[in-house]
Structures are given as C-alpha cells and as structure tokens.
Design goal:
The complex is a heterodimer of chains A (242) and B (267). Chain A has one domain: P-loop containing nucleotide triphosphate hydrolases (Rossmann fold). In chain A, strand 4 and strand 5 form a beta hairpin. Chain A is of the alpha/beta class and 242 residues long. Chain A starts with 6 loop residues before the first strand and ends with a helix. Chain A has a six-stranded mixed sheet with strand order 6-7-8-3-9-10, sandwiched between helices. A four-stranded antiparallel sheet of chain A has the order 2-1-4-5, with helices on one face. Chain A is built from nine helices and ten strands. With 267 residues, chain B is mainly alpha-helical. Chain B folds into two domains: 61 residues, no CATH class; 201 residues, no CATH class. In chain B, helix 5 crosses helix 6, helix 6 crosses helix 10 and helix 8 packs antiparallel against helix 10. Chain B starts with 9 loop residues before the first helix and ends with a helix. Classes of the chains: A alpha/beta (242), B mainly alpha (267). Chains A and B meet through helix 2 and helix 5 of A and helix 7 of B. The structure holds adenosine-5'-diphosphate (ADP) and magnesium ion. Adenosine-5'-diphosphate binds next to helix 1 of chain A.
C-alpha cells in the first residue's frame, strides 16, 4: 500500500455569516512539497490554513492528514504536527525565552538548554538578540521570526505560513524565505505558504494554487499557471500584488 | 443601658418623610427634574420593605427544613433572573450557569457557616440562615456577573493569543488561563481591599443595624468578622465555579475558539 498524501481536502466548504467563503475545495498535497497558496486579499487563503491547523472545521466535505480524518483523534497532536505561523504573530508579554518556552505551560517535561534556544534562533536567522530581551521590543521582522522559531520547536511535519513576509522589506523577505527553504531541505517538512505576491513565491515554491473568491482557480507548477487559459487567473498573475 | 434599644414607631417613619420633602424642595429649586421618580421611589421603598417585613415575620415563624430549602432555591432563582436580566452576556446557557454556580456556592458556604462555624441548632434556624444566605447570594451573584463580563472582555482582547496557543497544541484550559486569572483578580481586588479598610471609614451596614437593634458592639463585631471572611470565599468560589462553566461555552468540542459568539459581545 502506498503512503497516503499528507493532506487531502475533498469538497471542503466553509461558511461564515451565511456566505460560502470556501466553495467545495479539493486539494491533495504530498509530503515534502513547497506549495504557495496565492490569491487576492479576501480570496479565502487564511481560511484554508485555519482548516489545516484545525482552528476551524469545514461545514461540509472532508479533510485528512496522512489518511486520518480531521474530526477524529487528538486535535492537539494534530496541531503540533501541522504548525502554523499567523500573519500577525502574537508575541507574549515577557522575554524571548518565555516566548519560546511557552510549551512549558502545558508540557511539564518540556526543557531546552540555552544552547538549544540560541540554536533555534539562529535557524531562523535571529542572531544578535538576547534570550532575556523583552520580546515586545523586537522589530516586526524579528517578531515574525521569533514566532517561526516557536512553531518550529514543535518539530512539525507541516509548516503553514500566512503571508510570512507581509511586514518585511524585500531584502528581508528573501532572507527569511531562503532560511525556510533551507530548513525544509534540512528537516524535510512540508510547507504551505500563503502569499498575495506570486512574484516572490515563484522563487521558492514548486507548486502554486490560485484561489479566487473561495474557489480554486488553478493548481500546478508555474508552467501550468502561465498556460492557464482562465482570464481571471491571468489577470491575477499579471496584476502582481493584489 | 445595655440591651435597651429604641423601638421605631410608625409615627417616626412618617416624620422621616421630612427628608423626602427636603430632597423634593432642592430638586424643585434647582430644576433637577427628577421629582416624579423621587415620589415613585419613596412609595416603592415603603411598600416593598413593609411587604418584606411581613414576609420575613411569616418566614421566621416556619419550623420545617423543607420550607427553608424551598425558600433558598427560590432566592437563588430570583437572584439569577435578576443577574441574567441586568447583564445580557452572549454566553450560551448563561442562565443555567448562574443558577448552578450560585446554588453550589450557597451550599458550600452556607453549609460551612451553619454546620462548622456557628453550629446552629437546628441548622435551618431562619434567623441565622436567611440573612446569611441573602448575603451569600447577593455577593456571589455580583461577583459572578462582574467576573463573567470581565472574562469576556479579556478573551476578546486576547483572541490572537488564545488561538496562537491553541495552534501550538495547547489545551483550551491553558489557552484561556491568562484571561481567567485577570478576570478573577479584577473581581477579587475590591473584596480584598474591603478586608483592609473595613471599620476604618464606615461601619458595615449589617453591623450598624445590629448595634441600632441593641446588640453589644463586641458581639456585632464577631458576626461582622465572620461575614468578612465569608464574603471573600463566596466571591472566589462563585467566580471560579461560574468561569469553569463559562469559558467552555466559547470553545467547540474540537477545541476551537467560537469567534462568532465572542464577537457578539459588546466591547
Ligand atoms: N469570522 C468571519 N466572519 C465573517 N466573514 C469572514 C470571517 N472570516 C473570514 N471572513 C471572510 O471570508 C473571506 C476570506 O477570508 P480570508 O480567508 O481571511 O481571506 P485571505 O485570502 O485574504 O486570507 C473574506 O471575505 C473575509 O471577509
Ligand atoms: Mg489572509
């Protein structure tokens, strides 16, 4: 028997305030892929990531992780394996260490040495900050990377990134995406990255899913996208950011 | 002079209307425009308290425990309806939560006072049980509604934090811990301050009443000390029990924050 895909969405619909914000979406993603989820703002990209992280449940349709249904089994284990970094990272009051060691609040056996912690920070390119520094005093980009380091401490099998570069300048954006790409190759996780900027995404992702108004308008490698005969998809690609 | 006390006559009560007249005069002179409300309030005070007097004197003549228990249940229900109406909160099953939490608090605190501290015989002796139950219910309800409101405010404010913690695999209880603690602290601080300042600024109402009724201040003080300690326990129990029920209403069985219910609450 071949191994099941890491994610399988079948006819997944999500409603909000009586409106279908995701319409019968079907997506299959295999382990190790780097997928960019593209689309204009309001298309439903965050909605899909929240479903993957089990922060919301679909109104209809089915989601599976490695063949296991989302509505069965431990949701906490699932979230640990399918890590998410939010578009606006939530940094807790306190120091950098306190943010990284937040797992101790519910996992009493969670211990890491200062060395481990510095190692994690270095992985995400956060050098030159102290562990005891007030985390709220970090810059937007540093906070984003701290949140990424925190999610990585769960050693997830999948990394969900919601517009990871939206608060960064282009140089920083490429820097962090290069890091993520390197980490992916090193650790072998799957990446699903939401972006409204496909020009940035093409440098890192191998597969592109275009979402327009809650519907999947295109799905495939860049060459497929370029050749897509849907006017809406071409309009999105040519329109650049937005 | 000990154990003598002045019995207020109905004539004295009538004379007290001079206060109402004075207030009325001031309102007229300053054109404050609340005269009608004042008169309605004056009449209602008279009617409600007189009625309460008759009711209490009837209650205090009863001698069966099931009458007293029935009365307690009624008091809890009436208080919960009042609390439910006073503050519309978007909490599913809010009324049931109020009744249940208040009921549990009353059983625990009143039980401790009657059986363990005062050792009243019989335990349902109405002269002790009814006033103390009234205080527990009043204070418990107040604290619960304040805390519930504050908790919802905290949860809204910390929506991002709660979802971030959940997204990392935290249990719901951990994700809401900060909101629970803030809400309970905020509700308890006035009660604890009360412990610090009682007797310094003014006499507690119950103690003043006992002294007016001719009870030795040293005995009235003992009662008041017990009440003060009971007060803080009542608040903390009512808060913790009700919040234990309330926070769960904001999460699904799959440990997801029910954002839409939360957002329904006014800021
Ligand atoms: N809780 C909600 N209530 C009502 N509408 C919502 C809610 N969450 C998202 N939406 C709507 O669903 C659509 C998709 O949202 P989202 O997935 O966040 O888009 P994006 O592609 O920008 O990430 C938007 O139109 C948004 O307004
Ligand atoms: Mg979004």
């Amino acid at each position: 028997m071949e191994t099941p895909p890491i994610f399988e969405l079948k006819n997944v619909t999500r409603e909000e305030a009586g409106r279908e914000i995701l319409k019968a979406a079907s997506i299959t993603i295999h382990a190790g892929e780097f997928v960019a989820l593209l689309g204009p703002s309001g298309a439903g990209k965050t909605t899909i990531l929240r479903l993957f992280n089990a922060l919301d449940s679909p109104n209809s349709g089915e989601i599976r992780f490695r063949g296991e249904r989302y509505d069965e089994g431990s949701v906490r284990d699932l979230r640990q394996k399918v890590g998410m970094v939010f578009q606006t990272p939530t940094i807790l009051e306190g120091t950098v260490v306190q943010n990284l060691m937040v797992f101790q609040r519910w996992r009493k056996d969670f211990v890491l040495s200062d060395e481990d912690l510095y190692g994690k920070l270095e992985q995400v390119g956060l050098t030159g900050i102290g562990l005891d520094q007030d985390a709220k005093s970090l810059s937007g980009g540093e906070k984003q990377r701290l949140a990424l380091a925190r999610t990585l401490l769960n050693a997830p099998d999948v990394l969900l990134l919601d517009e990871p570069t939206s608060s960064l300048d282009p140089v920083m954006a490429h820097q962090i995406l290069r890091r993520i790409k390197a980490l992916q190759q090193e650790m072998g996780f799957t990446v699903i990255m939401v972006s409204h900027d496909h020009r940035l995404a093409v440098k890192y992702a191998e597969r592109f899913i275009v979402l327009l108004r809650g519907e999947i308008a295109a799905d495939g490698p860049l060459s497929v996208l370029k050749g897509d005969d849907s006017a809406a998809v071409q309009a999105f690609l040519n329109g650049g950011e937005e | 002079m000990s154990n003598q006390f002045y019995v207020v006559s109905w004539w004295d009560v009538l004379m007290a209307l001079v206060f109402v007249a004075l207030t009325y005069g001031i309102m007229r002179y300053w054109k404050i425009g609340l005269e009608k409300t004042l008169l309605v309030g004056t009449v209602r005070t008279f009617l409600q308290l007189t009625l309460m007097g008759y009711l209490l004197s009837y209650i205090f003549k009863q001698e069966s425990w099931y009458f007293m228990v029935g009365l307690l249940i009624l008091m809890v229900l009436v208080a919960s309806i009042e609390g439910y109406r006073r503050q519309k909160l978007p909490v599913p099953h809010y009324f049931l939560i109020l009744v249940g939490s208040l009921g549990i608090t009353v059983v625990l605190v009143l039980g401790t006072i009657l059986k363990f501290i005062l050792d009243v015989e019989p335990w349902y002796y109405p002269f002790v049980m009814i006033p103390i139950a009234g205080m527990i219910i009043g204070n418990g309800l107040n604290s619960m509604t304040l805390t519930a409101n504050r908790f919802i405010g905290e949860l809204k404010h910390r929506e991002g934090e709660v979802e971030m913690l959940l997204s990392l695999g935290a249990p719901v209880r951990t994700a809401v811990h900060g909101s629970l603690v803030s809400a309970i602290r905020a509700a308890l601080i006035p009660n604890i301050n009360n412990l610090m300042t009682v007797g310094l600024v003014q006499l507690p109402g119950m103690m003043s009443g006992q002294i007016l009724a001719g009870i030795d201040p040293l005995i009235a003080v003992r009662y008041q000390i017990i009440i003060m300690y009971m007060w803080i326990t009542t608040a903390v129990l009512a808060d913790v029990i009700s919040l234990t029920f309330i926070y769960r209403q904001f999460f699904t069985a799959r440990e997801q924050l029910r954002i839409n219910i939360l957002r329904r609450a006014e800021a």
